[in-house]
Every structure is written in structure tokens, then in C-alpha cells.
Amino acid sequence: MKKLFKLSFWEIFAASIAALFAIPILLILLSLFSGFNENFAHIYDVVLYEYSLNSLYLVIGVSILVIFIGVITAWLVTNYDFIGKKIFVWALILPLAIPPYILAYVFTEIFDYSGTANNLLRSLNLVSEDYALPNIRSLTGAIVVFSFTLYPYVYLITRVALMSILKPMLDSARVLGLSKLQTFFKVTLPIIRPAILAGTALVAMETLSDFGAVQHFALPTFTTGIFRTWLGMYDLTTAMQLASILLFVICIVLYFERYQRSKQRYSAAGVKSEKLISTKLRGVYSYLAAIFCFLPIFFGFVVPVVELINWATAIDNTFNNDFILSSFNTLLLAFLAALITSGIALILNFNARIDTSRSSEEINNFISMGYAVPGLILAIGITQFLTYIDYILFSTGLIITGSLIGLIFAYVIKSYALSNNVIQSSYKQVSTDIDDSARTLGSNKRKLLLDIHVPLLKTGLLTSFLLVISEVVKELPATLILRPFNFDTLAVNVYLLASEERMYEAAFPALFIILIGLIPIYFISKMINHSRTVDE
Amino acid sequence: MVITGCTPVNEVNIYTSRHYDADDILYAEFTKKTGIKVNIISGSGGALMERLKSEGSNSPGDVFFTVDAGNLANFQKGGYLQSIKSQTIKNLVPKELRGENDEWVAVAKRARVIFYNPESVSEEEINNISYEDLANSNWKNRVVIRSSSNMYNQSLVASLISSLGEANTEIWAKDFVSNFARTPQGNDRSQLMAVANGLADIAVANTYYIGIMLSGKGGEEQKIAASKLKIAFPNQENRGAHVNISGGGILKHSPNRDNAEKFLEFLLSEEAQKHIVNNTFEYPVLDSIDPHPLIAEFGTFKMDKTSVSDFGKYNPSAVKLMDRAGWK
Amino acid sequence: MNNEYLKITKLNYEIDKKTIINDLNLAVKEGEFISIMGPSGSGKTSLLRLISGLAKQSKGTIKVNHKVIADDVTFIEPENRNLGLVVQEKVLFPHLNVINNIKFGLSHSSINDDLSSIVEQFKITHLLNNYPHQLSGGEAQRVALARTLVTKPKILLLDEPFNGLDEALKKEIYPDIQAFLKEHKITTIMVSHNIQEVEELSDRSFKLNNFALKAI
């Protein structure tokens, strides 16, 4: 006999969220059907090639550099013991606290013709008066900047992969007759390759999404082109068409990343630390390893932070009303977004847990792709979406564009994956037997969620909350476009001041952003500390 | 947050794409004088236009306040403005500084001129220089100017199209671009710094920046840099130096229309004009007010009387032309 | 006396095309204590899960006190079946102390007579303020039993609940449990592999083999 068709509240909720998340993207893709006007033709003829080439070179250059830095440092830190290694293990991720655009602003100021670096070289008489280091505001400069802030992704993922390669594994290979090199290629490499590629794909997506850094460097790429077309040529449709092209590229990279991640067939959780034995490096080699690990941290974190502190203390009136107001705005937004995102993640994961069908899980996976969409593109799609909603709500006199709703919506889409990961892994720690007991003792779903799950997920929820906050505080392009009346965030302040070349005034808010950016670093380093090697 | 219906508060909602801190004082002065509360939304011209588009007739915007006639023309073209009725305003602002149908008016002027370092530029080279001269080969590697994505440059090129025709302007642009000492980067101030530091010999930038830098508002380093520079006003022998404006208009669906007009009148009052002159170092629209001494010391000059509303007219062509010329 | 307090008819259960239970029939009298034995993996736990509603049958009918709780058309959610389930894994709620664990299934929060008598009977009075992680295996099991029994379930399902207890403790506790169950006429189904336990506690016993039950 046929089963009764019942759509539960939970299922409707999950489907609605998925639809909601998808709409902004769909609206953008819809522009491809509106016909291509003369602006697009102009872009196609004159600058599209350049955008594509720049974006391509940027991604390739950054990928090579982050693999170089990330893999080698992960290798050194996992397999060897040397001076300062204990610090490097977690310090290597510090640059993640600095959003690419802030590093771009700082490096520009430092390496500019009349910046700190050149002045230093000249004052030390190492170079002539006319000499200047190569222009940082170039493709090469951009590659360097992105590499220094983004290599931690590759470092982290590679390290986790390396830690799953236990010595007994390698020993078996040697006993079976493989040389060291062969062992590397036949055992080690296949295990770490998917990790490296996944990490690099993530870096590529972040690079393609950036707006602040490339704009500051006057590098014509897709994001600056989209921005320029919309706001300079007043042509939203063409901008959306450009955005669609970028979306396709990102889609490809995204699927590549997911494919690589699915090829990772191990878990580093519960790795017994006695099995990770590291070789001690002596003498010169120890120093070399230390220097190699120190350099990325130096350029990616130490230098910018020190310079920013310098600049912030060089002027007074840093702690003024604007800063307080912006901070308040920023934290308010972040708080709201974190609340909503964590709430949705909780409900959807709860749904996936109690639902026997796989649909909830699939919806969760689908929604999690939001992190890949560039903030700029999200903002455009959401603007359109809200316009349509306002059109429908016209008669009520309510206006949603220009309110915080659009902005929070963008933040939620962007940070959902992060929140979902945390809550999903927290849920895995809660045995389903507990669910069973609760239900046989009379708990309905609501009681199960609120009285049992939530208290047991406290740590995960808090972590999710904090992580989303730090994501939101760093966000720039979507905020620039979607923010309402009288509402600047710290990131916006930094952007505006930096584009006016007022870095000294931008320093303090920038430091605050970095400070909050240290939150995820703290959590990640805690996780890293859980699996230290035996000699520590 | 979410804006609902209408509430009877005496206010005026200003959409502005000027980001000068000094404007906040202007708004405060206006409130003090009239008791009308001022609400600000700031954003780039394009972003504001998108907002207006989606707000439609529900838009709470009253005034659009911006720099560059190109921006104003775009808004007027899009139908977002309405005609200004105030006779006071019309009397104070000459025709060439008003938009079509009086849908916007200038409240301040700025010129886009040539800044140079007298130590690396000879009298001969700089005497009676014109924008057209900047394409000459003697300026190879000696010129800096900001990106073509900036509205000020687009308006400059638009004015050249208006005066010289598109074909000539395109030829000029290609040669001009080949004289750049570096790929366009940074804003106007950055160009002036580049000249002061010896990276280039001339920069094309707006007049008010020298005022800001000399005043010390940007710090000691900028003040010192600015003191090394001199201004040459181009095209004094023919049409005059390119002049652009800051200006405002009343938004089409303004719910507080009277307040909007009062605000524009305020901007043209002696008090506000003086404030503008002293804080953003622009040239006043009112003849009775003198420009700031730091600016005035560079002398008076002949201003191009091409109607400012042409900038908007030729803007799309200018943008594409600059792209074709390789002006990044 | 109700001869078919629990009645299961033609029960079928498949997961991923694999048959776990096929054409299973069972009738249990009110207040009866039956045991089910069988090799591991034979579906004993699944049977309990089906009765409790934590799993959904592919085909068949389950009735309690002549009311259908599960068939092809109806399915009453586990929280509404008023059945009790005690398993061998540690399933006390880690964030609640013992007394709050025990009170969890009760709709009113006051300590009533039943509650205190059960607590005494299971000898856990001194543990009321402790948290699950502070209990020994045996203590935790007693708390789990108490937690379930305090809700006066119509049917009690036990999945090897006495595994963690030492012999002496079992000897102490069996008569108390038996008495309690008999006094409150709680129909009980126990899954166990301990023959002595089965002989001592059950009225009837079955073997789950070849997907169905056979009396032993």
C-alpha cells in the first residue's frame, strides 16, 4: 500500500533555504539571456582578453608559489625537528588573519617608490638615489601578496595529509624493496596530492574572488572589470554577464576542489602521536629549515602588523568616533550573521541526522558551495533579488534594499560552509544512541534538539559563532555594495582610506580587523596542538 | 534598517558620492541653521544609481550630491532628477554650470591641471602648455595620471572629444598613454607624490589636492612634497583649462522636496561656499567668495567654458576610447 | 488477562535489499517477561528498534493493547508510543546529572513516591547529584533502568542491559527488577545471550533465527 506523503516542516525549511541561497546566482546567470549590448561588445573586443589573461596568470602564479611555500613548510614541520619548529607549526598559519586587501595596502605603502623599503635601502647607501625596487603594483606584486596571505590553506591541508602517513607505512614500503624516492612517489605523493590540489583550488577561488587588492594594484581582472562596468559604465546587465563568466570558471575550480577532497581516503583524527617520528636536523640544515619557515611568516604577518602598528601610533585621533561607530556596526553585523548562520546550520544538520532520506544531506552539501562565490558577485545577485522583492512589496511601502537584510543574507551564504563544517563534526561526537534514548523517553523533535542536542553542541556552536564573526569582519566587496544608510564597517573604512592613500589613518581599523582575524587561528592552532609529535 | 512608510520628521535624505570628512560639518551647519535633520547615504555614483533604480518611486532620497558633472549627467539621463525651481539658485549659478532642464547645479568648481617639478621641467616646455601637447614625444616617460576608471579623467577626455572630435582625441590618447612613466595607479595625490619624488616630471590632477597637501592635513610628508610643485594651467591660449564641478540635484521622487531645495540653496550661500573653499579647497561658484589663499597663490586662469553637461554626453565614448588607447 | 498485549504480525524488515526480518510473528501477554536469544547480527536489536519505532518496518503490523502502532498506513513516532528501551551502550545524557537524567521522561518535575522508591530499589540514592562520567558501568546501567522505569512504560524493551554488571550485583538486582515489573504489570522483552539470566527472569523465551522467532 502507498505510504502517506508527508512534507514535514523541517523538509520545507531546508528546501526553502536552498532555494533562497540559489536565487542570487540564478539571477546573475539569467543575464546571459538578456542579449549582449554594445558595452559587452566593447568589453569583448578590448578588455576581456586582458581580464582573462591577468586572471589566468594571477591564478597560475599564485598556485605555484603557494604550493612551493605551503608544501615545503608542511613537509619540514611534519617530518623534521629543528630550531623553532614548535612555534612554526602554528605560526605558519598567522597570515590567514590578514585579508589580502590589507596586505596589498601595506605592501604598497612599504614598497612604493617613496616607501619604507626603498627609503631603507637608500639610507643604508645600498642603492643609488634613483633606484627603486620593482613596482609592487603589478601582476608580480599581486602574485606575491596573494601567495603570502593564502599559502596557509595549502600548508594546513598538506600537513594534515602528511600526518596520516605513518612511519610503519613507509617502513613497509622500504621493506618491500622501494627506494626512498620510489617510496615518496608511490606512497607519499598519492596521499598528499589530493590535499595539495584541494588546498590550491581553494587558494585559486580566493584569488579570483578578490577585489580590494587587485583594484588597489590597478590590475585589470574580472572583479575590477565587473565593478567598473556596473559602477563606471552604469551597466548592470553587462556586469552580470561578466560575472557569469567568472562564475563558470569558479564552478570548474570548485568541482575540481571537491573531487580532490573526495579522493582523500584517510582521517587524521585519532592519529597516535607515537607513530609520527621526526628526524632531527642539525647544524646548518636546522637553520636553513628555520629560515625557510620564518620567511613566509615574516612577510605575511610580522612585517604588515609591525608597520600597521607603526602607522597607527604615528598619528593621533585614531580612536575617534568614526572608529567606534564602525566597530559597533561591524560587530553588530557579524553577530547577527553568526547567529543566523549557526542557527540554520544547526537546524539543517539536525534535519540530516533524523531524516532517513539523504535529501537533507544533499541540500546541505549544495548550500555549502556558497563560500566559493565571490562576494562581489553575490552582492550583485542579491541587489537584483531584493529589487524584485521590493517591487512585489511595493504597495506596502516597505523597502528592503538599503536595509541590512541584503548584507546579512550575503554573509550567511558566504560563511555557511564554515559553520556547517564545525557543527557537522560536532554532531558526529554525539552518539545517535542518545537520540534513541531521548525519543523513547518521550522527547519529540523539538525537545530532542533543544534539551539534548544544543547543550551537547555548545562548544561547536560557539566555535561556529566566532568563526563566522571573523569571516564577516574581513569581508569587503559585498559590504561595499550592499551596505545601507550611514553604515560603514571597519573593512569599508580601511578600503576608503587606503584608496585615498591615507594608510596611516587606515592602520588602526586594519589592526582591529587582523585582531579579530586571529580568532580562527586560535582554534586551528588548538587542533594542531592535539597531534604533536612524541619528541615535544 | 528597514524603512517603512512615512513618518513626519523634518529631514532631508542626501545621497552623496563625495567622501570628504568636511562635508559632515556642512550638514551639521545646515541642521543648525534650519532645524532640518540630515540623513546621509554615501556610495559611488553607480551604486547610488542602482539603489535608486530598485527603490523606484518609494525612494526616500531627496538630494543627490556628487563630484563630477559626468555623474550628474548620468543621473539626469536616467531620469532620476527633477528640475530645480528656485529662482535664487538659478540666479547664482551661470548657465554653463547647470544641467539640462536645470536638473542639477554646480556648487563648486575644480580644474584638472598640470603639476610639475620646476627642477626637472624647463620654462620652454611648460610655457603655454596644452593638454594636446602632452602627447608629444618630449614627454616620454615623464607623465603620471590616475586610472581611466576614474570619472575625472573620463570627463577630461569627454571634454576633449567635445572640443577636438573623437578621431583626434583617440590619436591624442594613444600617444599620451605611451608617455606614461608608469601604469596608472593610485589616486590624484599619489600622482603628485610621484612627481615630488622624482618618479615623473608632470602629473595631471585636480587643483584642490595641492591645497589639501599644502595645508598639512595629509601629514608632513605630503606638505613637503607639495611645496616642491608648481601648477601650469593648460590651454590658456585657446579654450582654457578643463573645469569640472561638485554639484547637486533634487531626486525625482523626493518626499521632502522643499527641504531638498533649501539644502541646495544653503550650499550656494556665502557661509557654505566659504566652508567649501576652506575645507575642500575647491573654487567657489559664488563670485563674491575668494578661493583659499593656498589655491589662490597659484593664480587666476582662463576656464574652459564648454558646457559641463557635455561631459555626461560624451562619457560612454570617452570610456571606450580610453580602453582602445590602452589607458588602464 | 490480555493475551495479546503486544501482537506482531507478518513483520518484514529490509535494509538496502538485505533481509533482516522476514514474516515474524509474536504475541506477548500483558505483564509477561519474554527473552529473545540468537547469534549476533541476527536482527534482535532491529526487532527491538522496530517495536520502539526507531526503525520502520517494510511490511507487517505491530499492535499494542489491540491498537495499531505501526502498519502500512499508520506509524506512531517513538516519542508517542510510551515504550521503554534500555540498551547496553552508555546512553545517559552527559550534560545532566543522575537525578535530572532520571526525571527526563517525566512531564512533571517533582520528586514523587514512585521516583524515590525506584531510586531506592536500584540503590542509586547516593549518586543523584553525580554526573554520568563519574559513574561506574554498573551504576550507569542502573540509572538507565531507573530512568526508563520511572516513566511506567507499557512495554519495556531491554537490549542486553545487564552486560556491564558483576555477578553479585546481578544477583541482588534481579529479584528487585522482577518484583517491580510484576507489580506494575510491565510487559517486557529482553534480548540476551546469558542463559542463566534468561532462565531466571523470563516466562518464555525465543530464538531469533532465519529471520523469525522460534519458541525454546
How would you describe this structure to a colleague?
The complex is a heterotrimer of chains A (536), B (328) and C (216). By secondary structure, chain A is mostly helical. Chain A has one domain: Orthogonal Bundle (MetI-like fold). In chain A, 74% of the residues lie in helices and 1% in strands. Mean pLDDT of chain A is 85; it is low at 1-5 and 532-536. Chain B starts with 10 loop residues before the first strand and ends with a helix. Chain B is built from 14 helices and ten strands. The longest helix of chain B has 16 residues, at 309-324. Chain B has two domains: 11-109 and 244-296, D-Maltodextrin-Binding Protein, domain 2, CATH 3.40.190.10; 110-241 and 304-324, D-Maltodextrin-Binding Protein, domain 2. Chain C contains six helices and ten strands; from the N terminus they run βββαβββαααβαβαββ. Chain C has helices at 44-52, 98-103, 113-121, 137-149, 167-183, 195-201, and strands spanning 6-15, 18-28, 33-37, 59-64, 67-70, 83-86, 155-159, 187-191, 204-209, 212-215. Chain C has a six-stranded mixed β-sheet with strand order 6-7-8-3-9-10, sandwiched between helices. In chain C, a hairpin with a 2-residue loop joins β1 (6-15) and β2 (18-28). Chain C is globular and about 45 Å long. Classes of the chains: A mainly alpha (536), B alpha/beta (328), C alpha/beta (216). Chains in contact: A-B, A-C.
Mean pLDDT of chain B: 87
Domain count of chain B, please report it.
Answer: 2
Shape of chain C: globular
**Main CATH class of chain C:** Alpha Beta
Beta-sheet strand percentage of chain B? 15-25%
Determine the N-to-C terminus distance of chain B. Answer: 38 Å
Tell me the CATH architecture of chain C.
3-Layer(aba) Sandwich
Total beta strand runs of chain C: 10
Question: What does the radius of gyration of chain C come to?
Answer: 17 Å
Work out the strand percent of chain C. 25-35%
Arithmetic mean of pLDDT of chain C: 86
Q: What oligomeric state do these chains adopt?
A: heterotrimer
Strand order of the largest sheet of chain C: 6-7-8-3-9-10
CATH architecture of the largest domain in chain B: 3-Layer(aba) Sandwich
Derived structural class of chain B? alpha/beta
Largest sheet of chain C: 6 strands, mixed
What fold name stands as the CATH topology of the largest domain in chain B?
A: D-Maltodextrin-Binding Protein, domain 2
CATH class of the largest domain in chain B: Alpha Beta
